[in-house]
Amino acid sequence: MMISQLGELELINRIMDKRDKLLDNLESEIFASYRDDAALQVNNDIYTVLSSDMLIEHTHFPRGMTYYQMGQKIVTVNVSDILAMNATPESIIISMALPPQMDVESFDSMVDGILSKCIEYNVSLIGGDINENTEIVLSATSTGQVNRDVKLQNGICERNIIAITGNLGSPAAALDLINNPDNNLDQDKCDNIISSILEPDLPIDTARLLRRYPKIVNTMTDITDGLARELGNIKSHNSDNTGFVIYEDKIPYDPYIEVVANTYNKSLYEYLLHFGEEFELLLILDEVEYNKHMDKLSDIYIIGYVTSDNSIKIIDKNNKIHSIQQRGYEHLRKD
Question: Measured between alpha carbons, how far is residue 103 from residues 2, 18, 61, 108, 114 in Å?
């Protein structure tokens, strides 16, 4: 059966029926609002954080990505922005544009993917919309809450330290593997790399720990458009002379992506610095506060420090210094 045989209202009801089974301990007014025109959210004198993201099939869903994984990804990319504000994620609204020939089994699988990540990240699916389109488009708005410990991209200082929460580069390598499957590489290692782009995950536990010790972090953002681009964005929010130095040998990555890079005549730096899609956190830390709690922060990798020389540089494994171009993925740009 195709989803066009059910129509928008029945599809929405299928989502809400699945979602309602996961809800408990809600005030009756709040629960009722989830099936009304808009959803209510209690706010007790703290910041409500909101962010939105859109995923389009031909741009964001690589070949081989299942409907379940598509559903997972729309939640992951939206919750990532909430974590990047040092906020606790709470809810998400997801709208879908779907081709009418899509079958109901695929639709249900996508919804199950959405709900699986809602459970994992402890967020509630509180609404959305469905429309018709020639390809799948998923658009979501996520919300969270944070007190005065919200982390914006300004306020960093010289000699602050730069850190990330996990491996970089694998999604870039994964896309090359997906688009060029005929190779003589180790398939198990390739599959592990490919999973990074098909099933991205978030550093939920690390983010929760950072919320417990907010003085550690001066600034944070999520790495969606490449480390170089994100460092450039932070630089633009601070004084004109703000700069960064990072060390190649401090950046964590799956060593097999070097093999992949060589296979496809790519630079390792292209993978590590200019692609993105890792959804790890990029952190600018207060060194004194970090040292107080570093024994609890084993999943944080120190990769460099803040300078005052108005540049972004990387020191390679041979101790040579290179300037980093502030580029990464950007929609609607062809250069």
Answer: 4, 18, 18, 9, 17
Q: How far apart are the first and last CA of the chain?
A: 43
Q: CA-CA distance, 167 to 204, in Å (whole number)? A: 15
Return the residue matching tokens 């580029």: 327
Instruction: Read off φ and ψ for residue 305, nearest 5 degrees.
Output: -150, 165
pLDDT computed for residue 37 by the predictor: 67
Q: Pick from 60, 52, 332, 58: which is nearest to 197 by CA?
A: 60
What phi, psi does 80 have (nearest 5°)? -55, -40
Total H helices, total E strands in the chain: 12, 11
Cα(235)–Cα(253) distance, integer angstroms: 24
Q: Are 200 and 278 in contact (CB under 8 A)?
A: yes
pLDDT of residue 10: 86
Sign of the torsion angle spanned by Cα atoms 191, 192, 196, 198: positive
- Helix spans in 164-301 (H): 170-179, 187-198, 204-212, 227-236, 256-263, 268-273, 287-293
What is the distance between the alpha carbons of residues 119 and 139, in angstroms, rounded to a whole number?
A: 19
* Residue 332's pLDDT band (cuts 50, 70, 90): very low
Global pTM value: 0.90
